[in-house]
Amino acid sequence: MKDAGYIDHMMASHVEQWLKVLQEAKKGTNSYLASIAASEDLDKQITDHEKELGELKARGKQPLNVFERFERVNMVDEYRSLYNFLSCDSHSNIRALISRHIERGDNDFKVVFYKDEPIETFLATLESTAGLLIEASLSVH
User: Fold this and answer.
1) Which domain, by its residues, includes 125?
2) Strand spans (E) along the chain
3) Rounded to two decimals, what is the model's pTM?
4) How do residues 50-72 score in pLDDT, each as one tens digit?
């Protein structure tokens, strides 16, 4: 790993994301955050998160973008391949929609709502995921 203090970057991202939620809740306009908005110590929570994030940034531990996170753990190849495919699937871009719902013929195509994909379609992803889990387990233990 390039950065032994990587956990602090993760913490900075964690704190920053909570800060965004807390600030949105404070506006009082998001019904999904009503229970947080009603919290009696919301202002203190915001102040505490701002302080914690400021302290982390002062130590050079800011939230990292997705590429920087992969880069810090020497996984650029995974970012430029597996993450790309999984991200497209997660965010339903055109590549994912075509893959899931279009069957191509010789000179035409048809839209399929529930496309039956053979297991072989997922082998590369499953194999890579298994490898990452094994590597992570070895690192932890």
Assistant:
1) 75-140
2) 102-104, 109-111
3) 0.65
4) 999 999 999 999 999 999 988 88
Looking at the fold, whether 12 and 60 belong to one and the same domain comes out as: yes
What length does the chain have? 141
Residue 126 corresponds to which amino acid? L
Same domain, residue pair 59 and 83:
no
pLDDT in tens, 13-55: 999 999 999 999 999 999 999 999 999 999 999 999 999 999 9
| Nearby residues of 70 by Cβ (< 8 Å), 6 or more positions away | 76, 78, 79, 83
Task: Give the tens place of pLDDT for each residue, 4-17.
Answer: 788 899 999 999 99
CA distances from 101 to 79, 105, 121, 141 (A): 25, 13, 14, 42
Residue 107 and residue 132 in one domain:
yes
Provide CB contacts within 8 A for 110, sequence distance 6+.
102, 103
Alpha carbons 9 and 135: distance in angstroms, whole number: 21
